[in-house]
Amino acid sequence: MHVGNARYLKSSDLPDAVPVFPLPGVLLLPEGQLPLNIFEPRYLAMFDAAMASDRLIGMVQPSLQALDSGTGTGPLSQVGCLGRVTSFSETGDGRYIVSLSGVCRFRLLEEVSTGKPYRTFRHAPFISDLSGEYDEDAVDRENLLRVFRAFLDANQLEADWDSVERAGNRVLVNSLSMMSPFGPAEKQALLEAPDLKSRADTLIAITEIAVAQAGNDGGTTLQ
User: Fold this and answer.
1) What sign results for the dihedral spanned by CA atoms 37, 41, 43, 45?
2) Residue ranges, the chain, pLDDT below 50
3) What span, in angstroms and rounded, lies between the C-alpha atoms of 199 and 102?
4) Cα separation of 148 and 208, whole Å?
5) β-pairing verdict for 96-112 and 120-125
6) How many CB atoms within 10 Å of residue 171?
């Protein structure tokens, strides 16, 4: 996989340990683009360190149990996604505006003590993500677009349908998954889907539930 100025083809192309940025409800997928506004001192330090080394950050959600407890700290979800910093700017008021490009998913192993204000973990990358091979033809594109249109109608939203029609199935599924306004549990399910078809099917199912709920509230229903 070619991301920015780097190529990642095998596990040895990746560091053994990465700093992690825990954000609930935020999803990064391989080849996706995630804009971030960084302002907390510990994460400013994380991005300083990343920019001085391999530019890699691990995006991961707090565990669903930690979110339910309301602490927002502690255990993390076991699966996240590595991102490479491919755009970086300073605002002049102490913030960084960055863009992460998705490299591959990973599974957390053990935490590494570094003395830094942010957390670092050893990880096991999903090597299959680095191949860039996806069975795009297995995606039920017609059904996905039908459900997506119903969701937009139910929420009185619009889309650039010319761009949607031009997008390949991989870009369409991953972009809709990342942009979807669903909660942490749904985002984690989309992240952990084993392949593109499974992610599309999961997205369709989640969206159908959301549209049905909107219909019960007097909005648009699926046709």
Assistant:
1) positive
2) 69-72, 220-223
3) 16
4) 9
5) antiparallel
6) 15
Could you tell me which residues come within 8 angstroms of residue 15 by beta carbon, excluding any fewer than 6 positions away?
Answer: 54, 56
pLDDT at res. 213: 85
- For residue 145, what are the CA distances in angstroms to 193, 200, 203? 19, 11, 11
Distance between CA atoms of residues 183 and 181, nearest Å: 7
The token duo for 131 is: 């191949």
Q: What angle do helix axes 184-192 and 196-216 make, rounded to 10 degrees?
A: 160
Distance (Å) of CA 100 to CA 75, 96, 183: 23, 12, 21
H or E element that contains 89: strand 79-90
Place of tokens 């969206």: 207
Given CA atoms 80, 178, 201, 4 in this order, what sign does their dihedral have? negative
Q: Tally Cβ neighbours within 10 Å of residue 107.
A: 14
pLDDT for 20-38, tens place per residue? 999 999 999 999 999 999 9
